[in-house]
Automatic annotation (TrEMBL):
PPR repeats lie at residues 224-258, 259-293, 294-328, 329-363, 364-398, 399-433, 435-469. It comes from Deinandra increscens subsp. villosa. Residues 615-698 form the Smr domain. GO terms for molecular function: mRNA binding; rRNA primary transcript binding. InterPro entries: PPR_rpt, Smr_dom, TPR-like_helical_dom_sf. The lineage of its organism: Eukaryota, Viridiplantae, Streptophyta, Embryophyta, Tracheophyta. It comes from the Eukaryota. Keywords: Repeat. The keyword Repeat applies. This is Smr domain-containing protein. One of its GO terms (cellular component) is chloroplast stroma. Residues 38-67 are annotated as: Disordered. The keyword tRNA-binding does not apply. GO terms for biological process: positive regulation of translation.
Length: 708
C-alpha cells in the first residue's frame, strides 16, 4: 500500500515520530527550528494545512515518487545486523480430520526392537585381549593392519561382532569394519552396520554414517529401527536437524514404524527446529496410538515450551505428566525449572523446586544454578541467599558455575557483604577455588559501589596469584577508577591488560568513552583519549569531528552510521549516550540534538515516546543524563509549539526516569529534576510512582503562555 507524504509538521504525532523525517532535511532542534522547516510523515491521520510550505530542495516536487526513491529513503534509516523478530510459536497443532468409521492408523511401534542375544563364546578372553591391543595401538592404518595379522582366531560372525563392539575410537571401528568387508568370511548383515554406526555416532561422524546407510540401501541390506534411530540421533547431536527429519520421513516411506526411542528423538529434533505444531501433532498422534511418553519425552516438550516462554505449554506438560502418572526425574525437573525461568515465573519455579525436594529427588548443581538465575533475574535476593544457606546445611553439590552465578547475582543486586562471604567460602573450598569469573564478579561489585581501594587490592591479588583478568573485569575496574577520577591508575590497568593479551571490545571502548564524557579538559582527558585511541581510533576521530562547527549534518550522519555498523548491537545505544554527553559537556548542544535524532532514527531508543488517549509519556530511563536532558528539551519545545498553535493535549503529561532497583543506583531522577528546575517546567515528582515526573495539561498551557 502506497504511503502518503505531507509537507507539514503533524504535531500530535510528533511526540513519537518527529525524528523520522527524511535524511535530506534539517535535523530537529527545539530552539533553532523555524515554522517553515519542512518535516515529512507517513500515513498521517490529519490533513495537511492549507498554507503553502516552501520547498527547500532544488529539484521539482514529485507527485508520485518512484519505488527506487522510496527505498533509497528507507535505506538511510537501517543499520546492519538488525535482530529479527522471533517467530510466534503456536502451542496447539492444526486440527486433522479423522474418519470415525475407520480405526486411526498407528504412527509408531509400541514394542522396542529386541537386541540380538549372544551365546557363550569360549574364545572371548583371547578376543578381548586382542581388542585391547587394537585400542592401544597407534591411530594410523598401517599400525592397525599390522596388528590385525595377529588375530588369534578366524573372523567368524560372532568373533567379528565381539571385536567390533569392543573397539572404542570410531576411527579404529571404521578401519576394522572396512577390513571385515574385504575378508568375505560371511555376509555383512544389518547388525554389523548398526554396531559401526553406533561407534561413529560417539564421534559425531554423521557423514560417514550416512555413507554407510546409502551403502546398505545400494547392497540391499535392510535398515531396521536401530539403524534409523542411530542415524537420526547422530544428526541431532551434530545439529543437522534437517537431515534428521529427512531420514525420519524416509523411514515412514519404507513402511517401517519407529519405536518410542526413535519417536522421542524426532520430537526433540522438531522442537529444536522450533516447529511446535509438528511436535504437538506427533505427540497427539502417538498418544492416540497408545503410546505412553516417558520422562525424556516430557523433558523435550518442557524445553520446547520454555524456549518459547510459553507458560500455558509448560502447564500442559505438567498436567499430562500428572494424568499419566509419570513421575519426573532430575532431568525433567531441571528442564521444567529452566522453562519456568524463561517464562518469567519465579514463584512457580520455587514451588516446583519444593515439590521436587518433597518427592525425594536430590537437586544437583544444575538445578540450583537454574534456580539462582531465576531468583537473580526476579531480584529475589532473600530467596537466593536462603537457598545458599540450605545448600550448605543439606550438603547439596556446588560447582564453579553455581558459585559464580551466586556472585553475579550479588553483583547485580549490590549485595557486597554477601558476595564477600561467598568469595571467602570459595577460597576455603577444596574443589571450587575462585577463577577469573569469580574475581570479575567481585570487581563488578566493588566498582558499582565505588569501593576503589578494595577493587585495586583485588586486582593486585589477581596478579600475585596468576589469575588471568578478562575484558569484563578490566571494564569494571576502569569504570570504577574513572568515576573516582584516578586516571593514572586507569591508564596503568588498561596498559597492563593489553600486555596480558586483553583485546578491547565495544563494551570496554564504551567505558572509556564514558570516562571521556565526564572528564575535565586537561592532562587527564588527554590520557583517557590516548587509551581510547589505542582501543578504537575511529571513535576518537569521530569525537574530534563533532567539534567542527562548520561540518555539515550529512557528514556527521554518514560517519555515525559507519561507526554503529561496526559496533556490536548491545553497545550502540551506550555509544550514542556517551557521545551526546560529550557534546553537552563541551557546549555542543546542536550536535547533541543531531545525535539524538540519529539515534532515534536508527532505532537505538525504542519506546522513547508512548501515547495513550489520556497520557503522553517521555521514557528516558535508558538514556544517559545528557541524552535525557536533550530529549526533554526537544519534548518541551514540541509541547510549547502545540500550545502556541492551540492544538489539543492529553489530560496528563509525564516523564519517566526509572526508580533504580540496584542498591548503588541513583537513577536519573536527581539530574532530571535539576534540569526541570533549570527550565522552570511545571513537572513535579509523582507521589505514587517513583522516578515519574508529571504535569497536567492546564499547567503546561499556563507555563507556555507565561513565557510568552
Amino acid at each position: 500500500m502506497a504511503s502518503t507524504f505531507f509537507t507539514a509538521f503533524d504535531v500530535p504525532n510528533s511526540l513519537d515520530l518527529k525524528h523520522h523525517h527524511p535524511h535530506h532535511q534539517i535535523p530537529f532542534t527545539s530552539r533553532r527550528r523555524t515554522k517553515k522547516s519542512p518535516f515529512f510523515y507517513c500515513n498521517s491521520s490529519k490533513s495537511p494545512p492549507k498554507q503553502q510550505v516552501p520547498d527547500l530542495s532544488e529539484e521539482p516536487k514529485k507527485q508520485n515518487p518512484s519505488l527506487a526513491d522510496q527505498l533509497q529513503t528507507l535505506s538511510t534509516t537501517i543499520l546492519s545486523d538488525t535482530p529479527q523478530k522471533p517467530t510466534q510459536l503456536l502451542t496447539k497443532p492444526k486440527s486433522i480430520w479423522v474418519n470415525p468409521t475407520k480405526p486411526r492408523p498407528s504412527v509408531l511401534n509400541l514394542q522396542r526392537q529386541q537386541r540380538t542375544s549372544y551365546s557363550h563364546n569360549p574364545q572371548i578372553r583371547d578376543l578381548r585381549l586382542f581388542s585391547k591391543k587394537l585400542n592401544e595401538c597407534d591411530n594410523n592404518q598401517d599400525s592397525f593392519l599390522k596388528i590385525l595379522e595377529e588375530i588369534p582366531h578366524p573372523p567368524t560372525r560372532q568373533n567379528a561382532l565381539l571385536v567390533l563392539n569392543s573397539l572404542k575410537p570410531w576411527e579404529k571401528t571404521l578401519l576394522f569394519f572396512n577390513w571385515l568387508k574385504t575378508q568375505d568370511s560371511f555376509p555383512m548383515e544389518t547388525i554389523f552396520y548398526n554396531v559401526a554406526m553406533k561407534s561413529l555416532r560417539f564421534g559425531r561422524q554423521f557423514q560417514l554414517i550416512e555413507d554407510l546407510a546409502v551403502e546398505m540401501i545400494d547392497n540391499g541390506i535392510p535398515l531396521d529401527n536401530i539403524t534409523y534411530s542411530t542415524i537420526i540421533t547422530c544428526a541431532k547431536r551434530s545439529n543437522l536437524f534437517d537431515k534428521a527429519v529427512e531420514w525420519f520421513e524416509r523411514m515412514y516411506k519404507t513402511g517401517l514404524m519407529p519405536d518410542e526411542v526413535t519417536y522421542s528423538a524426532v520430537l526433540d529434533v522438531y522442537a529444536k527446529l522450533g516447529k511446535v505444531e509438528e511436535v504437538m501433532s506427533l505427540y497427539e498422534r502417538g498418544r492416540a496410538s497408545g503410546w505412553t511418553p516417558d520422562a525424556i519425552a516430557f523433558a523435550v516438550l518442557a524445553k520446547m515450551f520454555g524456549e518459547a516462554g510459553d507458560y500455558d505449554g509448560i502447564r500442559y506438560v505438567l498436567q499430562e505428566m500428572k494424568s499419566l502418572e509419570v513421575k519426573p526425574n532430575l532431568v525433567v525437573f531441571n528442564t521444567l525449572l529452566e522453562a519456568m525461568g524463561k517464562a518469567g515465573k519465579p514463584g512457580l519455579a520455587r514451588g516446583l523446586f519444593e515439590e521436587m525436594v518433597a518427592a525425594g529427588v536430590s537437586p544437583d548443581a544444575k538445578t540450583l544454578t537454574s534456580l539462582v538465575k531465576i531468583y537473580g533475574k526476579a531480584r529475589w535476593a532473600r530467596d537466593a541467599l536462603d537457598l545458599w544457606q540450605r545448600m550448605k546445611s543439606n550438603g547439596w553439590p556446588m560447582d564453579f558455575i553455581l558459585y559464580n552465578t551466586l556472585l553475579s547475582m550479588c553483583a547485580d543486586l549490590g549485595l557486597q557483604e554477601e558476595a564477600e562471604k561467598l568469595f571467602d567460602d570459595m577460597k576455603r573450598s577444596d574443589n571450587c577455588k575462585p577463577d577469573s569469573w569469580s574475581y570479575t564478579a567481585m570487581l563488578n561489585i566493588y566498582g558499582s559501589g565505588g569501593n576503589v581501594g578494595k577493587a585495586m587490592t583485588l586486582f593486585d591479588q589477581m596478579s600475585k596469584e596468576n589469575v588471568a583478568i578478562n575484558v569484563m573485569g578490566c571494564t569494571c575496574l576502569i569504570q570504577c577508577l574513572g568515576r573516582a577520577k584516578r586516571i593514572d591508575d586507569l591508564v596503568m590497568v588498561f596498559e597492563t591488560s593489553l600486555i596480558k593479551g586483553i583485546r578491547p571490545d565495544d563494551r570496554l571502548c564504551g567505558c572509556l568513552l564514558s570516562v571521556v564524557s565526564y572528564c575535565e579538559t586537561g592532562d587527564d582527558l588527554d590520557k583517557v583519549i590516548d587509551c581510547l585511541q589505542e582501543a578504537n581510533p575511529r571513535l576518537v576521530s569521530f569525537v574530534k569531528l563533532l567539534e567542527q562547527k562548520k561540518l555539515g549534518f550529512e557528514k556527521v550522519k554518514d560517519e555515525f552510521k559507519e561507526i554503529l555498523n561496526n559496533t556490536e548491537v548491545e553497545a550502540r545505544r551506550p555509544f550514542c549516550n556517551c557521545l551526546i554527553d560529550i557534546c553537552r559537556k563541551r557546549n555542543l548542544d546542536e550536535r547533541a540534538h543531531e545525535l539524538l535524532y540519529l539515534g532515534t532514527m536508527y532505532g537505538l531508543y525504542p519506546g522513547l515516546h508512548t501515547k495513550t488517549p489520556d497520557e503522553w509519556r517521555l521514557n528516558v530511563r535508558s538514556l544517559s543524563v545528557g541524552a535525557a536532558h536533550t530529549a526533554f528539551e526537544e519534548w518541551v519545545g514540541t509541547l510549547s509549539e502545540m500550545v502556541n498553535r492551540q492544538e489539543s493535549l492529553p489530560e496528563l503529561l509525564s516523564a519517566s526516569t526509572g526508580a533504580g532497583t540496584h542498591k548503588y543506583s541513583q537513577g536519573l531522577a536527581n539530574a532530571f529534576e535539576s534540569q526541570v528546575n533549570k527550565l522552570s517546567a511545571p513537572f513535579r515528582q509523582s507521589e505514587e510512582k517513583p522516578g515519574v515526573f508529571v504535569a497536567s495539561r492546564e499547567d503546561i498551557v499556563s507555563w507556555v503562555r507565561s513565557k510568552v
